[in-house]
């Protein structure tokens, strides 16, 4: 084998390793200083944001490259609430088989986070919509460069996309878990943004989520392939 081919192979393996493990390496060396959120989701910034893990027992990031770049950082209270919600679902026999994907959150220092209009103060999170396969099995929403890491997918008016369909019950379980653990982490859910056309299916599958504050207006992007949550400090 030619020397240049060996070098190229080694370089590709190293690059893969950096992308695959880089976020978790950076998490291990990030500052222990407490997070401080300033301003609002649309006009604010963050001090000492904490990166989310790339994967866990029942969840993964939308993009390991995005995580490496730091597009998965939040206020430490939000960080803990997200992980607590996934742990709660994994520990319950009714929801242990569910699989989740979190989307973009913000920079470790907050501020402008294009193309998003918000996500600036560490209290905003996108979660990719949970789906089930044609066989009825919970599967992660496919995310890659070819579908803009999931953000380009478009569900129909009932929540179907090819062989996939939105798992409204799983979505409801996650929202309720987030609502509970937010309170134990000194937070409240201020707003949930999910396509108003699809909200009736969610409310039918999980009526309890009606107690949360849902935006009733369609946003500048549809929010069918993901649901956006804004948290706020509770004291």
Q: What's the number of domains? A: 1
The number of helices is 5
CATH topology: Muramoyl-pentapeptide Carboxypeptidase, domain 2
Overall average pLDDT: 94
Q: For the report, how would you describe the main beta sheet? A: 5 strands, mixed
**Assigned CATH class:** Alpha Beta
Spatially, the strands of the biggest sheet line up as 4-6-7-13-12
Give the strand content. 15-25%
Number of strands: 13
In a nutshell, what does this entry contain?
About 30% of the residues lie in helices and about 20% in strands. With about 240 residues, it is α+β, with helices and mostly antiparallel strands.
How would you characterize this protein structure?
With 235 residues, this protein is α+β, with helices and mostly antiparallel strands. The protein has one domain (3-233): Muramoyl-pentapeptide Carboxypeptidase, domain 2 (2-Layer Sandwich). It has helices spanning 3-29, 64-69, 76-91, 168-184, 199-205, and strands at 36-39, 44-47, 50-51, 59-61, 73-74, 100-102, 124-128, 131-132, 138-139, 160-161, 164-166, 187-193, 226-233. The strands form four sheets. A five-stranded mixed beta sheet has the order 4-6-7-13-12. Strands 9-8-11-10 form a four-stranded antiparallel beta sheet. A two-stranded antiparallel ribbon has the order 1-2. A hairpin with a 4-residue loop joins strand 1 and strand 2. The chain is globular, with a radius of gyration of 18 Å.
